RING-type domain-containing protein
Amino acid sequence: MDVRTIAVVAVAIGTAAYAIYEFFNQSRNREQQYQYRYHRRNSPNETYYYNRRDSPTETSTPFNRQRKKKAERKEDNCSICFESLLEGVIIATVCEHQFHYKCLSGWLQENENCPICRKTIVLDS
C-alpha cells in the first residue's frame, strides 16, 4: 500500500470513530434531558442527578463529600443563594457541583452553564 492509500484509510477510520462518538454523546444528552424533564414534572422534591454515573448509591449520596475531591472542596453552601446545602432539594451537575433545585432551575432559565465552572449543562434541544 502506498502512503496516500494509508492516509485515506486513516482519515476514514478517524471520521467513523468521531461519528460514532458523537452519536453516543448525543444519545446520552437526550437521555439526560428526558430524565431532567421527567423529574421536574413528577418529583420536584427529590434529588436529581444530571449524570447517571452520579446516581445515588451507598457511597455517593448528596451529602457524602468524601467522593473524589469533595473532601478538599467542602461545598457547604449553594453557590447561587449561599444558603446551606443541608436544607432543601440538592441537584448534582455533570461537573459534580451541587446546588439547591430551585436555585439551579432559576439560574438555568437565564444561563446554559454551571455557575461555578461554566461547563455547559444541556437541558432542552
